[in-house]
């Protein structure tokens, strides 16, 4: 078991999470595509939509597929598809090829998100599963953070921002080949292959249902925090949008710092204790934001909130799979399906803000955290199930 968890095997798996971060290229690319083709806001915003719609359509089928074909094969396929998605707008640049390219990237990313997490867990010891998941999210965040920097650099020094596509394509293909070149044996659960029936059965399990809903609210929290915090600061403290947007940068910085810290601490700290502590810190940060007396103190509280929240997703995912390890593929598909919370919760926060004021958005975040606290309490009452 020691050899299969060696750095030689783990590095190409971790690299797949870096490729996973390529999907966030759509954020900065949308602005350039809008500018290049003089698009309206509504037409330009089809690019992000065409990327994330696949989470709802492909997540569960991917979980079933990888249970039959293997996690490693599915991760390699996903990185290859991601690389292929970079080609259409490179060969011929138009709005249509940009849409087609990001559609393919979105499909590849969905498959990758479903398959990379179980593969990483498969090659992690019980003591390092949560820590490795936190580290993988940190690696993904690095790719997400570097994307705008790379695009801006290429636009400034070469005059062609689209050169990011061949760079990302090459990295995707090389990462796929790297993983292919490593011979690894996957664990195979002694049960019938995954199907829609087994997915439905596992979702009927109260523990799994509660944890999947927790992921739904966590992703909703994350997207709402990102999209609403600047507006909250702008209206609460009567500052410019540019100054208020610093709150978003502080939030992302806290996520990166928290995930790096979590990847270290979770190798020594009990996972369940870490989860309850993280959830309580998140809740305390949000409640304090409501009563914060100044903008600078609120920035500190945003950092604390993000720090607490940063490791909740990998902790919940690891604990859910620990409960039902034989159903890791089905659970992974359900978890990525729950990413749709990012499309449901923010509009609710927006409607409430418009009707009751900006403070309502914080109450939405508090509700999401309270559900996670309930799920955490539920976890603490459970014993690991190895079936």
Q: What keywords describe this structure?
A:
single chain, 387 residues, 20 helices, mainly alpha, Growth Hormone, Chain: A, globular
Question: Under the CATH scheme, which architecture of the largest domain would be assigned?
Answer: Up-down Bundle
Report the CATH superfamily of the largest domain: MFS general substrate transporter like domains
Helix and strand composition category: mainly alpha
End-to-end separation = 21 Å
Mean pLDDT: 86
Residue fraction in strands: under 5%
Count of the separate structural domains: 2
Q: Could you list the spans in which at least 5 consecutive residues all have pLDDT below 50?
A: none
Helix content: over 70%
Q: What is CATH's topology name of the largest domain?
A: Growth Hormone, Chain: A
Outline, from the CA principal axes?
globular
Number of helices: 20
Major sheet attributes: none
CATH class label of the largest domain: Mainly Alpha
Describe the structure.
The protein has 387 residues and is mostly helical. It is 79% helix and 0% strand. The chain contains 20 helices and no strands. It is globular.
What's the quick description here?
It contains 20 helices and no strands. By secondary structure, it is mainly α.
Compile the SSE list and pairings.
Layout (H helix, E strand, L loop, with lengths): L6 H14 L4 H13 L3 H4 L1 H7 L1 H16 L1 H15 L2 H4 L3 H28 L6 H29 L6 H18 L14 H8 L2 H32 L3 H4 L1 H20 L5 H20 L4 H15 L2 H12 L4 H10 L3 H16 L2 H22 L7
Helix pairs in contact: 1-8, 1-9, 1-10, 2-9, 4-8, 5-6, 5-8, 5-18, 6-8, 6-10, 8-18, 9-14, 9-17, 12-14, 12-17, 12-18, 12-19, 12-20, 14-16, 15-16, 15-17, 15-20, 19-20
């Amino acid at each position: 078991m020691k050899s299969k968890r060696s750095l030689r095997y783990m590095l190409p798996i971790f690299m797949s999470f870096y490729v996973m971060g390529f999907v966030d290229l759509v954020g900065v690319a949308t602005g350039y595509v809008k500018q290049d083709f003089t698009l309206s806001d509504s037409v330009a915003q089809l690019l992000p939509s065409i990327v994330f719609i696949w989470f709802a359509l492909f997540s569960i089928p991917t979980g079933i597929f990888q249970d039959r074909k293997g996690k490693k094969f599915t991760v390699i396929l996903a990185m290859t598809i991601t690389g292929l998605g970079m080609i259409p707008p490179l060969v011929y640049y138009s709005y249509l090829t940009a849409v087609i390219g990001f559609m393919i990237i979105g499909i590849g990313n969905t498959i990758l998100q479903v398959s990379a997490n179980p593969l990483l867990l498969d090659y992690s010891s019980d003591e390092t599963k949560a820590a490795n998941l936190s580290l993988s999210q940190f690696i993904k965040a690095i790719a997400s953070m570097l994307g705008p920097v790379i695009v801006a650099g290429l636009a400034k020094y070469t005059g062609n921002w689209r050169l990011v596509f061949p760079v990302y394509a090459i990295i995707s293909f090389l990462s796929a080949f790297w993983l292919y070149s490593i011979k690894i044996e996957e664990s195979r659960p002694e049960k019938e292959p995954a199907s829609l029936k087994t997915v439905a059965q596992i979702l009927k399990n109260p523990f799994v249902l509660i944890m999947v809903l927790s992921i739904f609210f966590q992703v909703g929290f994350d997207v709402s925090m990102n999209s609403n915090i600047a507006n909250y600061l702008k209206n609460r403290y009567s500052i410019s949008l540019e100054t208020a947007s610093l709150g978003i940068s502080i939030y992302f910085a806290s996520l990166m710092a928290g995930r790096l810290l979590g990847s270290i601490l979770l190798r020594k700290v009990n996972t369940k204790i870490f989860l309850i502590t993280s959830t309580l810190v998140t809740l305390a940060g949000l409640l304090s934001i409501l009563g914060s007396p100044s903008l600078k103190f609120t920035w500190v509280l945003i950092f604390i909130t993000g720090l607490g929240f940063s490791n909740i997703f990998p902790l919940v995912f690891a604990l859910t799979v620990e409960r039902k390890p034989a159903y890791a593929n089905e659970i992974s598909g359900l978890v990525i399906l729950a990413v749709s919370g990012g499309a449901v919760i923010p509009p609710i926060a927006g409607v409430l803000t418009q009707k009751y004021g900006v403070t309502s958005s914080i109450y939405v975040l508090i509700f999401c955290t309270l559900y996670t606290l309930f799920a955490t309490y539920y976890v603490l009452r459970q014993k690991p199930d190895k079936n």
